[in-house]
Amino acid sequence: MTAADNPPESHRREVVSFVRHRARMTPAQQRAWREHGPDHLVEVDKGAGHGAISAGQSVDWSAVFGRRSELVVEIGSGAGDSLVAMAAERPDLDIVAFEVFQPGIAATMIKLNRAGVRNVRLVEGNGVHGLQHLFAPGSLAGIWVFFPDPWPKTRHHKRRLVNPEFAALAASRLRPGGRLLAATDWAPYADRMRRVLDAEPELINEHPDGWAPRPAGRVITRFEGRGERAGHDIRDLSYRRR
Ligand SMILES: C[S@@+](CC[C@H](N)C(=O)[O-])C[C@H]1O[C@@H](n2cnc3c(N)ncnc32)[C@H](O)[C@@H]1O
């Protein structure tokens, strides 16, 4: 075996939970990005690789939002439907949403503008890196992961966002009593999330005898609708940091 067969950790290609879509933004999305990007987007230092956010930086979130409020992170906000509705439902929260898909981010900007929602900021990049590098341990009131890509094929399971490392990272970033909310329409992933999150010693399942209720404002998105039409049950999970 040569060194190339077993490269050091830093040279190995990172397994990420998203695919790189080639989709371009529509003209309306491009306009929204140009005109409203500065109001909604937080620019961070990018690392090497699609979506990578580099270590060794910090963001003063109370300066970004212009107030000191409870902070929530959403990972994979998609086109922003549930994000915008949940942010409108909870104007007391400041929400930082990570997404790698530019047209989704632009669509979210348009919805934020229409709804006049001001307590959301968007970061283009990998939310796992974002959690790691942009938030101090114990600083978050919530982490939301709604309909993460299910990666149904066995050979792709390693790409699932919710895995033991993610559970430990999420638990470390939540403050005591902070909540991790997740939802999926893919039953095997729901079961896997539950096993992984139940095994994280810092997290407590708030509904050990069943699934969690749907959170207020979590409207039906395109992904959830598609799952429902395919006959899938929707499963919510809610965990509290010890
Ligand atoms: C199936 S979609 C669901 C979108 C949205 N939450 C909803 O319910 O409609 C999953 C989204 O997560 C994004 N995503 C996956 N992994 C991510 C990561 N590590 N960081 C940021 N976004 C991610 C994908 O680009 C995609 O838009």
TrEMBL record:
Q: Which GO terms describe its cellular component?
A: tRNA methyltransferase complex
Report if keyword Transmembrane helix is assigned: no
Extract the Pfam families matched here: Methyltransf_4 (PF02390)
Going by the UniProt record, its keywords in alphabetical order are:
Methyltransferase, S-adenosyl-L-methionine, Transferase, tRNA processing
Pathway(s) this gene product operates in, as recorded in its UniProt entry: tRNA modification; N(7)-methylguanine-tRNA biosynthesis
Q: Which GO terms describe its molecular function?
A: tRNA (guanine(46)-N7)-methyltransferase activity
Where does this protein hold substrate?
A: K153, D185, T221, R222, F223, E224
Q: What class of enzyme is it?
A: transferase
Question: Which EC numbers characterise this protein's activity in its record?
Answer: 2.1.1.33
Reactions this protein catalyses: guanosine(46) in tRNA + S-adenosyl-L-methionine = N(7)-methylguanosine(46) in tRNA + S-adenosyl-L-homocysteine
Q: Which NCBIfam families match?
A: tRNA (guanosine(46)-N7)-methyltransferase TrmB
Task: Return the protein name.
Answer: tRNA (guanine-N(7)-)-methyltransferase
| Source organism (scientific name) | Naumannella cuiyingiana
User: Taxonomically, what lineage is the organism?
Assistant: Bacteria, Bacillati, Actinomycetota, Actinomycetes, Propionibacteriales
Q: Which gene name belongs to this protein? A: trmB
